[in-house]
Design a protein that fits this description.
elongated; 16 strands; Nucleotidyltransferase, domain 5; 4 domains; GIY-YIG endonuclease; single chain
Amino acid sequence: MYAIVDIETTGGHASGNGITEVAICIHDGNEIVKRYQTLVNPGREIPIYIQALTGINNEMVENAPYFKTVAHEIFELLHNKIFVAHNVNFDYSFLKYHLATAGYDLQCNKLCTVRLSRKIIPGLISYSLGKLCSHLSIPNEARHRAAGDAQATATLFELLLQSDTNKHIAQALKQKSKEQVLPANLPKSDIDSLPYTAGVYYFHDHKGKVIYVGKAVNIKKRVCSHFTGNNSGYQRQEFMRNIHRITFQECGNELMAFIQETIEIKRLWPAYNRSQKNLDFAFGLYSYEDQRGYIRLAVDKRRKYSTPVHTCGSMVEGRNLLLELIEQFDLCPKLCFIQKNDQVCTGNNGLNCACEGHEPADEYNAKVQAAINQLKHALPTFAIRDVGRNDEEHSCILIEEGRFYGMGYVSHYFDTDNIQQLKNTLTPYPGNDYMRNLVISYAERYPHKKVMFGANAMAL
């Protein structure tokens, strides 16, 4: 038995909205054997735009029963039935959530007439209920009302049952089939094409725009995990509705996938990627030459397109670094913005201080450059050589003077201990502190995959 359902609501996600109308058609596979319809008092104001869409206003539901009053009757109608709806996960998530708040645990097999229509009646421009009714000459006298849409869905379902020569419905109902948990607009073929390898995957909207980028050790397993559960929150429900296509990019290993994800988020700025959009350290140590020709050092907030000498997690961290450089290289605290008062410079006990012009600019700048060089030399230069996407290649990631340079794939026979040749082979990417720290952390965990350069060079 099938329970063909349509509901009207005050909004798009169950946890923050109420139900205003429920209609259920019980279908035995041949015809409708029972109908149920009721208005529901949602316990909140119905937004004006919803009133305009459905025609259901606050006065109409004022004396209607609250959902908890009709919950038992609705549960009995749905229990042990196959739950059918147009975009089934929307209706199911609302009824499951509100039945749960009334003390009922709804567990049904589901069928989505959007997904089934795409398979059984392929080639249409749109699979909205209105467009399908128009294309198939299905009457609907009460569009956007639960009873009218439930009846139209039932008629559509009967046509799908009659036209299903390839047994798509039976296939969807198989116990191992997970198709009904997929977003309504996502072709199952996209899921079937996903590999069980490490890489990056992309969710696209109806225009093809990337709305989410993710990384995975196992692409297929990770993608499918997005569609499990019945989270009724607004963000998830909106997210699911907007997924129309999935593409992917295989990577050689987990580290390559992590970095590629970060690169793609920075490049594409997808709407649903909340994290990894601002992962750079917030402060940097900058150098510049003032009007008198002295090189000055300063800690400041990171700014777009600026290149600091060194990155810092906080202003305090940067200040402490500057204090160490001042002491070690005899730098002027005023020219480093550590001492900001008008008193005698504390550097060199006030003698021959650069801020007073007593120390020539070229002599002072040599000390500053020595301090900068030490910072750069203290930063590591190395590569990570690891497994590739197949047996014919290795993956390779390069860190140069503490900065992420780029990555790519090289032949087993490629000589990675020549840094210039390696740089010519790899694809350079804009790096950030998160990517650098990922690689450095990985090198600490797997030192045998690390390739040094120069006198300490070694190859795998």
